[in-house]
Amino acid sequence: MSRTVLITGGTSGIGRAIAEMFIADQAEVFITGRHPDTVEQTAKETGAHGVVCDAGSPERVAALADRFGELDVLVNAAGGLPDAASDGLSPLDALRAQWHSSLSQNLLTAVLTTASVREKLTGGSSVISIGSIGAERGGGSYGAAKAALAAWNASTSAELAPKGVTCNVISAGFIAGTNFFQGGMTDERRGALVAETHNKRAGTVEDIAQTAFFLASPGARHITGQTIHVNGGAFTTR
Hints:
It contains 7 helices and 7 strands. It is of the alpha/beta class. A 7-stranded parallel β-sheet has the order 3-2-1-4-5-6-7, sandwiched between helices.
């Protein structure tokens, strides 16, 4: 039977790779993003259903949830580095804006979307949220938001597991081929990140997509409330 899958932030990078993985398995996949042109283009290229939605907006995610009867898999992939705009703000106001941006993008998007579809999840459903190695390794406001994501996941798992729903976080290390660093990646920094791994390679979006696909499989039904580290061993080097 075809599964119904919702992926927030599914227009590029990790989110898109996960969407393509489930589409290849004949799932009916819905992807969301904030920009209509990007959503439309990605939907056309992948065969997913594209929905323009800011996952940090209660009104938008409520409308999104109305599209579904039952939902088999939710992937909270929306997120990113905080907005850098601080023109005209005092240092403390700029700091507050940065933290609000990090929490909104990387925590509240998952919290609000999951809450909106909670009653659509059934026995056998999976909630998968994309975290980061930055939660444990000097990630600033971004890392703090991802750490909070893991704490929220644990409590959400305790609430939903009796219903047969698993909830897990994939904590990604350095993943090449995404726009996460917004053009700020240098050869020196890339080399240092790769050197931290045990297998001496950058992660790929396919590494994360394969892990997400497994966590939504019958073989992972006793895995819940966990943070799964996918970083080539880099997490253990500090």
